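Report of the visiting student (M.T.), summer placement. My assignment was to run the structure pipeline on a short list of targets and document each run. The first record concerns Cytochrome P450.
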Amino acid sequence: MGYLIAIAMVISTIMIWRVCVILFWRPYAVRKHFRKQGVTGPPCYSFLHGSLHDMKIMMKDARKTIMDKHSHDITQRVLPHYHIWSSLYGERFLYWYGTEPRICITDAELVKEILSNKFGFYEKPKVRPSIVTLMGNGLLLVTGVDWVKHRRILNAAFSMDKLKGMISRMAACTISMLDEWKRQLAIEAKNKSLTIEMCEEFRELTSAIIAHTFFGTSFAHGKEAFNAQTKLQHLIAASSFDVFIPGIQYIPTRKNLEIWKLDRKITKSLQCIIESRLNSQSDSSFYGDDLLDIMMDTKNDGPNKLNMNEIMEECKTFFFAGHEATSHLLVWTVFLLSLHKDWQEKLRQEVMQICGMEIPDPDMLSKLKMVNMVLLEALRLYCPVIELVRMASKDMKLGDLMIPRGTGLVIPITMIHRSKEYWGEDSNDFNPMRFINGASKAAKHPNALLPFSMGPRNCIGQNFSMMQAKTVIALILQRFSWSLSPDYQHAPDKNLTLQPQHGLPIIVKPLQL
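After the run finished, the structure tokens were exported:
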């Protein structure tokens, strides 16, 4: 008995020591380590909270502001802590995300070194369980050999030949949306225009496209999963600056009960889609070539096989990430073209010259140079992902900095995309002509544009997203002109991804052809 008590005391002492190291010694040692290298940051370190309390207050105050609709300098609204701390401590500064030290990195060459590393020295950090519930433990979040396996299998679904074959389905979903606009205009015959909430329109459109192209089903079948993920996204974003205590996800709090409820809805909806696909396969040795078929292909075995749980998690990942980024890219592109009518007309002329009133095919889309330039500028100014985080898996030398193991490296994309050093004095202006010679030559550094990250963990769906956006914008330009509603309030907001806080009401008018 005494032997067991002694073991328990030793274990307890070790655990208490580790807690003391994390909560007290580590903050002191890390701050001292970086101070010697000339890197400082906010002096206040709150027990458990780190800098989270200050960040939460700054974000709350920023969300109360309404910007001039012609201003694209959004850093102080969506990343107010970076805006304030970089002005006080320089572009490289140290802060604490709870008990995790983080250092801000805005140097494009150092960013390239971090994101291009192939040896796992800068890994994706572990995220909160609620994020895993939302996004699924799929390609976005898995690491190491699991990521290699998932990426190898999923690459087949994103080959250019596969993507080109999806354009007709993308167009069909878009034309269905535009026909509904025409129907609403016909009902309101007195008015020659219609006000549409674009955030909701594009969310449903991109969700429908994902459902059709990746899962061979309709938006109606996946609607419950999409809606549950949207509610879950708002719930998680609201608590992103709260202190996370390991194990709290198992306590039946009001928030956790709601998360569990939404997760059950998502899982049930995806199970129905997967079971329907299984039942539709009369010959179990034959599978098609969409994403779901590729994941379920029984010819894949051994190290190349995904089990049913992994398939479910990947479905969550692509249901969320597959439509989220493209939806907001379309929203911000329409916003920018509503402000810059000259560019809206230039793009319309290009589309009519190359496509006429035909549905764009892959060859036509590749020739839409100005459409591509505008989309790239929209991604620069209003990138859906506003920051990336990596974790040093061992003590590393990064440029002239020595980074201790366990330090988070934060890459604020929004700030890099507005750096005058890389983009010039007009870095906050809408100027698609900067991309006339392509993305790599638009700035003074070839990697200053990071909408889809870079390196081995770049976004697997970037070609799909751009092809979809080109198709949708081209079809709208063929049929409608639009302008910004006077009810619009310019308030870009970080809700995990960048989106208008108060929506995007747009006035559309049918073209008289």
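The chain has a mean pLDDT of 89. Residues 2-36 form the longest helix (35 residues). I thank the supervising group for their guidance throughout the placement.
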